[in-house]
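Hello,

Our lab assistant flagged a job as stuck in the queue for most of the afternoon. It eventually completed. Since we weren't sure the result was trustworthy after the delay, we are filing this so someone can double-check. Below is the sequence as submitted and the structure that was eventually returned. Let us know if re-running is recommended.
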Amino acid sequence: LEKALIEKTKEWSQSKLSLEAEVHDLRQEKCLNGMRVEELQRESAHEINKAQQELKFAQLENIQLRMQVQEATRMGDEEFRRLKAEVIRLRSELEETASELKLARMVTMDVPAASTEEKGATRLELSLL
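-- returned structure --
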């Protein structure tokens, strides 16, 4: 019985030492995991800060692009108004020319048959109109 008790005591001592070693290993692993978690948190915080900076720059660039679009739109509107005024001016000139041409045709029809020289002069006068 005493021998069995000594044997069991040895087994328990071995088990206790084994368990203590395992507990020690687990504590070390826990400590390493804690350090890794802290490192990952720092990296995450750094990445978050970096992403926030990039977002701020992208927002700033977006604002600048919108301002450029507004400026281009304003310039486009001004160019459109200028071209529209030019079209109106050219139409007026065209209408004037058409009226002058109509008047010239009426004058030419009213002129009695003339010599070739006079026709040349009339054409010259009309071209000056």
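-- support follow-up --
The delay was a queue issue, not a problem with the job. The result is valid. The chain has a mean pLDDT of 88. DSSP finds two helices and no strands in the chain.
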